[in-house]
Amino acid sequence: MATTSVSTPLPAGLDKATVISALHNHDLMIKTLCPALVSYEFDSGDKNSEATYIVTDKKPIGQTTYKLTLTNIPDGVNSLVNAKPPVGTLTISGKWRVTDDKLVEDVEIDGNFMMKKMAKGNVEKTHPEQHVKLLDLAKA
After folding, report:
1. Is the separation of the CB atoms in 124 and 7 below 8 Å?
2. Which residues of 2-25 are buried (b: 16+ CB within 10 A; e: fewer)?
3. Where is the DUF7053 domain (predicted)?
């Protein structure tokens, strides 16, 4: 299991409740988490608590489709990606939390050695931008 954490300060004037509301907006989360989004559809569950979506996204290695489950909790959202790329399975579990003055995402990645290494590098490279995008959208 590989782990990493991404933390972003909340912009001045943006309160915790507004950020949590943005995290609980599954459409907004999917569009933030998938910058090269091709399409997504509701699969099962309840969009106001826990729901699973089928997401098709463009990656450097081509187009990929995977399941994304978003679970709303009082101080944030849990995200779970279950992907089956050609080189094995990949599970990425994220805990997005709003602390006093930060948006914190703790990520656990499970898969074979190469997939873990690639996914961890991708999270560390792209998720700070995703945090900024989400916070900008929350302000709007």
Report:
1. no
2. bebebebebeeebebeebbebbbb
3. 4-139
- Would you identify the CATH topology of the domain 2-134? Alpha-D-Glucose-1,6-Bisphosphate; Chain A, domain 4 (3.30.530)
Residue type, 97: R
Sheet holding 90-98, edge to edge: 2-9, 102-111, 90-98, 76-83, 62-73, 50-59, 37-45
Q: What is the pLDDT along the chain (140 residues), one digit of tens a residue?
A: 899 999 999 999 999 999 999 999 999 999 988 878 999 999 999 999 999 999 998 876 678 899 999 999 999 999 999 988 777 789 999 999 999 899 999 999 999 988 898 889 989 999 999 999 999 999 88
C-alpha 130/C-alpha 99 separation (Å) is 17
